[in-house]
Amino acid sequence: MDSRCVNRVATGAGVGAALGASIGALYGTYEAFRYKVPGIYKIRYIGQTTLSSAAVFGLFLGAGSLLHCGR
């Protein structure tokens, strides 16, 4: 793998993580208020949703960039 390919995969993973974090934060906030999560647990719930969504989106966008890099 050349440096251009590694740069492309890292950029894809970064963009995916940023997109996933923003969507996860919005969805986590919505769910926390919808299901009436009590007190300080709201912040924990929103944080978990944000990080897990960022990890999944980043993984898939990075993997997709890796597959396209081989062409």
From TrEMBL:
GO terms for cellular component: TIM23 mitochondrial import inner membrane translocase complex. The keyword Membrane applies. Keywords: Membrane, Transmembrane, Transmembrane helix. InterPro entries: Romo1/Mgr2. The keyword Transmembrane helix applies. It is found in: Membrane. It comes from the Eukaryota. Belongs to the MGR2 family. This is Reactive oxygen species modulator 1. It comes from Elliptochloris bilobata.
